[in-house]
Design a protein that fits this description.
- The protein is an alpha+beta fold.
- It folds into 2 domains: 29 residues; 165 residues, no CATH class.
- The protein is 34% helix and 36% strand.
- Strands 1, 2, 3, 4, 5, 7, 8, 9 and 11 form a 9-stranded antiparallel sheet that branches. Strands 6-10 form a two-stranded antiparallel ribbon.
- A hairpin with a 2-residue loop joins strand 1 and strand 2.
- The longest helix is centred in the first third of the chain and has 26 residues.
- This is Ysc84 actin-binding domain-containing protein.
- InterPro entries: Ysc84_actin-binding.
């Protein structure tokens, strides 16, 4: 095998490994570790992420605390996505919590997008569910954004306390946290939210 053939074979192997790893993450494979101990460790990491995101939100938007704590439930997701050349995607971990029962539902998000160029993004989302029906529908059936819609933050008759949040459905609000603060606009690109069967 000459040098050119070896280089081509190495590139093919690299991309197969990369794509295989991404596919495994989207399917929600079992977390690393042995048995229930590894599973609980992974759950604790998601809980820590959710608590850190809530602390950050409350520090930046103190009025958001009463919105989240007064709601039927909430969900927190952390996503890190990278766009390379013509296709990109992101996956993230999430936790939904119902206040009345203290029920936890571990979830995932998966995003696929297309377009030319490079880009890196990092953000966290805090979902707020004002009704039990909205919460149950989210954790039982999931949710999916389509297209390239951009939604602007607005109070929309739900009171000034939700200023900075985005209304995405009746009784459902989202705060988007970035490194720069609470975003005034939520951009969604074919993102799907669903139960994490490996942790739930």
């Amino acid at each position: 095998m000459n040098r050119l053939q070896f280089r081509d074979a190495a590139l093919v192997a690299f991309w197969l490994i990369l794509l295989g790893g991404c596919a495994g993450n989207i399917r929600g494979q079992a977390p690393a570790g042995d048995g229930s101990a590894g599973r609980e460790e992974a759950r604790d990491e998601v809980r820590d992420m959710a608590n850190a995101a809530l602390r950050d939100l409350y520090a930046r938007r103190p009025q958001a605390r009463s919105v989240v704590e007064g709601a039927t439930g909430y969900a927190v997701f952390s996503n890190f996505g990278m766009k390379i050349l013509v296709a990109g995607g992101g996956t993230g971990e999430g936790l939904a919590v119902e206040h009345a029962t203290r029920r936890e539902v571990f979830m995932r998000m998966a995003e696929l997008q297309a377009g030319l160029g490079f880009g890196v993004k990092k953000f966290r989302l805090v979902w707020v569910f004002q009704t039990k029906d909205a919460f149950d529908s989210f954790v039982d059936s999931g949710y999916q954004f389509g297209g390239q819609a951009a939604l602007s933050a607005r109070a929309g008759g739900a009171g000034a306390d939700v200023t900075g949040a985005v209304s995405v459905a009746p009784g459902v609000w989202i705060y988007q946290l970035t490194d720069d603060g609470v975003a005034a606009e939520l951009t969604v690109k074919g993102t799907r939210y669903y139960r994490n069967k490996a942790l739930d």
